[in-house]
Design goal:
nine-stranded mixed sheet
């Protein structure tokens, strides 16, 4: 009976079968690679966006600079931010002259009482004024020179024997105010909510002794260009302490990266003292 096998009988047929198996292996590998390529790759984890921040952007209408540092908040659209402000204040020449004229008028109006108050003040200041006239200590950066010069100006009225001399001495002391630059620093924190790709706002609520309500808007033009706008919406005006804040209601206070960052000031003295000198 004849064989029905498709492979020839004998050793040659066996060899041919092995060859068929070997030739089929590359095909199986190709099919496996095609199947593997059809499986979608896992999605890459997106890099978290850094919270907004800027350093020392200048105010548009005064000598002040603002820094904002934020961290991620409770939700993806919230950030917790700390703002730090540095401001330099200097009395204008016209303001100093106005104060000098006001002092002169008040002195002449109440000269007898003013002389008595001045005599008491000079007696109280005498130990301090004498100490300031002693040899300078090791205070650095011109602090001794500033202290001695300012104390000498404050002591000058005590050496006067008539009212014109006293008025002139006090006027010179007042005029010195326009050459004193006062450095002021302040900070506050708030939560901002993102309302668009490049804009964050706060939730205005009453705050502080005067229940001031302030709106804050932070906008970004690009990675290095920022605008900060703060607007006082309302304030409790029932107390004298807070009534002065009402003058700035609805007046935007703007810091911008586009504003000039440098300023020119004629400062003979620089101080952080609230009174203008130590």
């Amino acid at each position: 009976m004849e064989s029905t096998s498709l492979l020839p009988a004998g050793p040659q047929g066996a060899l041919t079968g092995e060859r068929a198996v070997l030739e089929a292996r590359p095909m199986r590998h190709l099919v496996f690679l095609l199947l593997l390529a059809s499986v979608p790759a896992p999605a890459a984890t997106p890099t978290p966006e850094m919270p907004p921040q800027f350093i020392n952007i200048p105010a548009v209408e005064e000598n002040a600079w603002l820094t904002m540092e934020c961290t991620r908040g409770k939700t993806k659209d919230e950030v917790s931010c700390v703002f730090s402000q540095v401001r330099i204040e200097q009395k204008t020449e016209s303001k100093a002259m106005e104060e000098a004229e006001k002092f002169r008028a008040e002195f002449l109006k109440h000269s007898a009482a003013t002389r008595r108050e001045l005599a008491k003040m000079c007696a109280d200041w005498k130990p301090t004024l004498q100490k300031s006239a002693e040899a300078p200590s090791n205070e650095p950066f011109g602090r001794d020179a500033a202290r001695i010069e300012l104390m000498a100006l404050m002591a000058a009225p005590c050496a006067c024997e008539d009212d014109e001399c006293r008025i002139a001495a006090f006027s010179k002391l007042i005029a010195t105010q326009e050459r004193i630059c006062r450095i002021r620093t302040s900070s506050f924190s708030t939560t901002l909510r993102r309302i668009s790709k490049n804009k964050w706002v706060n939730t205005p609520v009453p705050a502080g002794l005067c229940n001031a309500v302030t709106a804050i808007v932070v906008e970004r033009k690009d990675t290095s260009s920022w605008t900060f706008t703060q607007t006082r919406i309302t304030v409790d005006k029932d107390t004298e302490l807070c009534s002065g804040m009402a003058a700035n209601i609805n007046r935007p206070y703007v810091f911008s990266s586009d504003a000039p960052s440098s300023t020119k000031m004629d400062c003979r003295f620089v101080t952080t003292s609230i009174l203008g000198w130590d």
